Amino acid sequence: MNRLGALLFSFLNVILTLNSWADSKPDKFYYQNAVYREEIKSVKLFRDGNELSNPVFELGSDVQLVLKFDDLAEDAKNFSYTIIHCDANWNESFIQQSEYLSGFPDNPVSDYAMSFNTTVKFVNYQIRIPSEECSPKFSGNYALVVFEDNNRENLVLIQRFYVVESLVRIEGLVKKATFDAFNGENQEVDFKIFNEKLRLLNPRDDIKVVLMQNRRWDNAIRTLKPSFIRDNVLEYDYSKENVFPGGNEFRYFDIRTKRYNGENVSEIKFIRPYYHVTLLSDLIRTNKKFSTYKEMNGNFVVESQDRVTDYDTECDYMFVHFLLPMPSQLIGGSVNIFGAVTGWNANQSNQMKWNFELAGYELTMLLKQGYYNYQYAYIPDGAQKADLVNLEGTHFLTENDYQIFAYYRDQGGRYDRLVGFTNLNSAIKN
After folding, report:
1. Taking residues 19-27, what's their average pLDDT?
2. Whole-angstrom Cα distance, residue 275 to residue 319?
3. Is the pTM of this model over 0.85?
4. Pick the CATH number of 169-246+398-425 from 3.40.640.10, 2.60.40.10, 1.10.10.10, 2.40.50.100
5. What is the DSSP-derived secondary structure letter of residue 340?
6. How many CB atoms lie within 10 A of CB 405?
7. Beta-bridge partners for 49
């Protein structure tokens, strides 16, 4: 095993995501964003031209989604991909691929390039959806599944995306929670669905809504029913059922250059043969004064301020060292790095370890040059969602994005159609 392989082996882990809370049968596979191999890095799925965008496009439009990921290897592998239609709860739909896909169900990942002039060797892969080879014909939830050697069970990664047919219009507002037992620091999301184009026989049950905060699925609200129904308008105006903790602005660091320390970077060292980045020690922000600043709501971008021409193949990888000092070790749960950098999952690859000598939680992650957002999450044993309030604090003035998805199934229909989508921002008042 080479030196990189030996170093990476210490990070090898089994993907253990937060407990699944989808209402699915035990024998059904639940599709979620996941990376099944430690050597697969920098996974991003977005609308072409906007690396920070939601992976959503309208049925029949000319918009493409781009999936990018790196494999820490010196040679290309025989990767393929397929697309699976899912219901609103991310279980596979009861329809055949030949019905909802045009083109071929399985396709090779033929767009790849070797890294150039980097200390860590890797192969960069890219997939575009839709394409001439494979294009969705139905709206709804989709899972993009990458596998190796033409074996769908030999999983590499899964990424979710959405295809919408705009049959309803969604308007909403994020405000301070009306009824708030948590010291007034919660955010309430009120919205309306205008359904002039759909004939709803049972409006209360025909539309299923999913409300998400910053693209997180673990704390998504999926049980909302209209509070009022009138003249083709469904109103969702609650005081408790549609409430999220405001949370805190995401922490950030800048590793776009190897020549000097970026924001929140304490030190960059080249310890042959790799670069190591030590971040400034973080502080627990519970009960700290709130400070607002611009960030990316948990996202990250791959970029470089060094002399490179292609971010995908010339941005290098560095070992990034996190440290969160604490008075004592937490009992009954784990501390994890949380955000898009970890796929919004809590698992062994981003679980921090307690260091008795430093009196704090520490973690080393191998990350590509770029600009990163993150937070510290506390995961109680057996929990179904990450707790960001315990370590980060919460404030109703925090700027957050909220995604609202509206699903509809025809009478006797066999799949959930995604008939509406919108993104709200808590800082924008309508």
Report:
1. 36
2. 6
3. yes
4. 2.60.40.10
5. G
6. 23
7. none
